[in-house]
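Deliverable D4.2, example record:
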Amino acid sequence: MSEVTDLTVIEIKPEQAPVLYAPNGLDAFLEQIKQEVNEVPDLSTAKGRARVASLAAQVSRSKTAIEKPGREYLKRLKEAVKPAEAEIKRFVDACDELRDLTRRPLTEWEAEQERIKQEEEAKRQAENYRKQFEADHEIALLLNDKFDRDAAEKAAESERQRIAHEEELKRQAAEQAKREAAEAAQREIDAAAARERDALLAKERTEREAKDAADLAERNRIAAEQQAEADKKAAAEKAERDKQEAIAEEKRKAQAEADRIKREADEKERIRLAEEKRIDDEAAARAADIEHRRTINRQSVAELVAAGLPADCAQKCVEAIAKGAVAAIRITY
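Output generated by the structure prediction step:
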């Protein structure tokens, strides 16, 4: 016996689209699908669970059978309105251009009036600036005359003060010269004594500085040797630390890469096993569904034969009902 399906194959022709793809136009198909999956399979059995999965998959196929021509119909509608959109845009652009061309004389007149207005405003401001400049110039001339008189009086007073100051400087210079001569003599006496003291102190300071320099040089030499040894040791320790850190870093990177590769391999293996299980489960579900249908169909044929129909007639009746050729009768699987 050939394999049968539950849901009627749905086919929508292009000429049906305007009626079907309208408000509530698909209600009949939706109700048909609801009625054809109105079952309560036994989920405690593998066949029952396979039946649920099969019904859900058939609903998805029916959905696609209705949605796909609907999308094509919608695409044709969008293509149909494009010429109208293009014509409207052409008309609007032409009207905008005609509007601008019609208004151009007024626009040019308004621009000319604005230019004339700006020129008159510029002339007015220039005249105001000229008048203000002439007034400021007259005031400046009056102020210059007063400034010249004040400057002459100040110059005469400055000259009198300069002469008096020079006389006072000459008197102070004579007294200063006397004082400086006496002070110079005393300074020479003091300087001779100071030079003798400085010579003695310089000798003592030189001897002391020479000894201090020798002691400092020895201390510096010892400190330099100690520092060089410490630097050498620190450099060796740092080199060893850097080496160990580099080795540890390389090990960490290698381990991280190995872990990443292992994770990717594990993930690929998990996906592969899951895909294999999915394929096996689907194949088992299809085989179980086919076998279930065949069992029900054979049982139906047997019951019709038991009711008195010939075997070949009973088989043809079951096949016709399973294919949906008998509108008022259906087989519940």
